[in-house]
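Lab notebook: predicted structure, single chain.

Context: the supervisor wants predicted structures on file for every construct in the current expression panel, including those that have not yet been purified. This is the next one on the list. No modifications to the sequence; it matches the entry in the shared construct table.
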Amino acid sequence: MKTSDGVFSLMEKEGLTTLEIFYDRRADKFLLRGMKEWDDNLHFERYNTDFTVEDILTSDYFAVGTQRLISSFTKMGLKDYLEHIQTLIKETKCHGIEFYHHRAKNIRAMYCKHVNVLGIKNKHQAIRAGAMRRHELDEPEIDVILDGLNIARAMAYKNAIANIPYGGSKILVQCDPVRLDDFEAMGFLAYVTDRSRSFTGPDMNFEPEMADVINERFTKNFVSGRKSPMGASGGPTAYGVYLAIKEACDFVYGSRDLHHKRVAILGIGEVGYPLAEYLLDEGAGLIVSDRHAEKARRLQDRWGTDRVKHVRPDEIYLVDAEVFSPNATGGIITEDRIKDFKFKIIIGAANNQLNATSKEGELKLAKKLADAGILFVIDWAHNSGGVLCAWAEWLFGKKASFERLKPRIELVCKDQFRELLEEAKATGKTPTELAYQKVEDIVYSGAEFEESL
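Prediction complete. Output recorded below exactly as produced.
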């Protein structure tokens, strides 16, 4: 198999705009379906002006089913690749993946979807929620798929922990950087959002300003821009993580006072930067790392080099600090790295910090961290400020505000978080194991939530 081969190469060969891999976990069966849903000359910059997701967008529509697609994967030497994707879907307990291809601009969108039990009951158009992130075109497709499936699963748990009635999802997009005046690209991403029956917002490698453009021109299901009622979602996410760090310090050290505490922050972007400011305001000293060194210099210019130290990304795992806060890419906590950690607490906003592809793998690494004397809590138990922000804007529009949302964030990221730590200690379980136990019944059986601020 060549590195350029994958699902989108098959879609190109078969003339498909859309392909879905769906897993029925009750029957333990997969269904595949591929479609040509629009013509290549369709202008997505006119989406929701000249056409909607429910319109006929081609006079040459066709669809192919499971056996035909399996045969096509096999003929292209991709049968093992397809089976690997299906294994990952089963391991992450997801419903599957929807693939959408804008051939002219080579935009490859993958909608990874976890179970939708909560979303089906919520009486709204969107049945899942999860942000949209961009990957480079030269990244291996399978790595992007794995990232999406893991985050979709985590989003299902995060939404349940935050008491909002939506299944979990993640939209992964492989494309070149998108300009704010590229309405063709943004219209296509808006179409994918609506077609997938989700609401979303910008994540890694997509700027918050993109949400403003899409929200104003194309769909209200794309939220969390700079102009939104609460601004970009990074700030509320940072506030929740900051609250969790204070509770963790009180749990471990007997005080929420962050003076003389050192916090190592990996990633000082949309979440990491406001988190750094919260911690510095509390008197903490920081050791920061980001691939863009100018972000560290901005903090140092304001707070001084004594309060803010800067190290290379590969050095952050070895520094001497009480707290480690990962706020960039996931998969950074490996079994090999644990033995080198000097931290006593790991609390951060990054998705899927544990380098694992399943719940069982995560629980194993969480136990190793506990055995090493490190308090770690799975990210979706405390990084819910952003999704709460997105939910409030999507549902309540201009009536939403950060001040009205703060008590909801504090309930989840401070009060419920502290209860989780105390119960884990009393039962001898890791906080991650206990968090899974608390949330899985809600995610898989459904629950009724009252939607109010």
